[in-house]
Amino acid sequence: MLQAIRDRATGWLAYAIIGLIAVPFALWGVGEYFGGAADVVAAEVNGVDIDTRSVHEEARAQRDEIRRMFGGEVPEEFDDAGIRLQALETLIRETLLRQAAEDLGFTAASETVRQEIRAMPVFQEGGRFSPERYSQLLSAQRISPADFEDDISRSLVLAQLQGGVRDSGRFDDALVEDFAALRNQVRTVSWRLFAADDFDRPDVVDDDAIEEYYEANPDEFTTEERLRVEYLQLDPESLEDAVELTEEDIEEHYRANRSRYEEPELRDVRVIRLDDEDDAESLIKELRERIQDGEDFADLAEEYSEDSLSAGRGGRMGELARGDLDSSTLETVIFSLPEGRVSEPVRADGRWYIIEVTSVEDARAQPLEDVRDDVEADLRDRTAEQLQIDALDDLLSLTVEVPDSLEPAADATGLEIRTSDWFTRDQGEGIAEARAVREAAFSDRVREGGENSDALDMDDGSTVVLRIAEREEAELRPLEDVEEDIRARLQREAAAEAAAEAGDELIAGLREADPWDDAIEDPDAWVRGRELTREAREDDIPSGLVPPVFRLAAPDGDTPVIAGIRLGDGDFAVTVLERVEAGGVQEDPALREQARQQLQTAYGSAELRAYLEWLESQADIRRYPENLE
User: Fold this and answer.
1) Nearest CA to 194 among 553, 434, 502, 547?
2) Where do the structural domains in the chain lie, given as residue ranges?
3) Which region among 79-93, 254-268, 450-464 has the lowest average model confidence (pLDDT)?
4) What's the CA gap between 605 and 166, in Å, rounded?
5) Helices 145-167, 131-140: inter-axial angle, 10-degree rounding
6) pLDDT tens digits, residue range 483-532?
7) Which of the pair, 174 or 609, is modelled with greater confidence?
């Protein structure tokens, strides 16, 4: 469900819905187990409270999104406190936009909301929307259809407002040309690389320098604190594998849900469609009267219908089942119209229709033997879902009620208490490979207080609760253990400095020579006249060279720009920027269109940021970040 919503929302707006249902769907109702206590307020926006639970749920959704964007691991720079504060700001902005949308009278049509929900794959079976599955899934998460539909409606309203503000970003066509030319610029560069490895200085680092560095940088040589945890892991797949079904169970499920396993009713339909122009209503009524007077429906459809797909076939749309059409109005008419009857003129989706059902094939049940695999798979899924809900209920409640032990929860759920290998705050294997596990283990409440952790969502869909099993404190390593590492580091720094000195000496000679290349003494060491673009990634281009080359000022006439660039691995590049040419967007419409889209995104985002800043400047906002700790 979450992915279906993400596919239909953009940017941080997607979190407006995720904040409501991410945790309930991921943890099968975990949010409800702790209800009853008064919510702690994290912020007030024009008198509307944002509670801390919503912020933590939003932070979890954002953390999951970051993990997805970065291949399953949250980068170190995204710390928990920062994500929580960003989540708070996200909910503040969302609240401001909702209030603005209400003030401006934005609404989402009921039909649009229904279409949005019907299109979500999580509510579909066999590619079609299943009202039964929709009801069951929402019921399992303790969310009423009215609340869910209201939330979808609010998200659509926010999308309307956000889209409208973004679309207000305007720019001249001339700017597209200028931006495209700059973006696709080609720079002709010559360079020589001074590799640090060529300046090895094994004798420049003495014992005093090593000891001085050791004493000045103790943190670099202090071992990291290590932990081992014991944990319970509730795995949905293992629960599903453990489900045992009898033939009687399968037959009972088939009988109780027979309507789900039947071939749907099919209706062969003909249609005449007119677009909603000035005379469309009068013409559609005239055509209806002519059909009633005996004229052939197919002949009139071929002559008048504006539905290009069916007009040439006498208006025949073919056999339709419920759910095949986007329009609920047309579907209602088609499946309530008696066979052989021609409908009155129908207006739907801005067009006029006359509909005739030429034949009806009633729905018919499929024998159990034909759908047995589907029935068994569905029953297995539902049984496993209920087992997970029950097991998770015991896991969550007992690890909270008995915060200093996992044994009561293990006894109630039948889960095995496992023990991890040693891991540090930044690295681990097995269960500790997940950053969420390491962060939970190193939290003050778990590490210092000895309590069970909160329930953790794992990428594989399982849920983990852990506690500390063993702990090793950090300690400073002896100098003799790290002496060679320090020596190698200082020698590397000395080599990098020597490479830079050699490069600077060459730069001085190049700048004095006229022309510059008269100062070249070793032509084989140079790469000459190379044309680079911003996306250049060839293997022979030194890593880190391209971005600084494109930050250099363009040459003044025939005078090249000579500069030195320190690269990340200690190497030093002497560069000669000889020529700058604008990108040839005139000959490539695709590049121009790409530039237009990039500008539209940038200008639209700027408009939205400006609008949000204005809303915030007009609002009464009070933040209580201390309540998030």
Assistant:
1) 502
2) 2-169+620-628, 185-222+479-581, 226-245+370-472, 265-362
3) 254-268
4) 6
5) 100
6) 999 988 898 889 999 999 999 999 999 999 989 999 998 999 999 999 99
7) 609
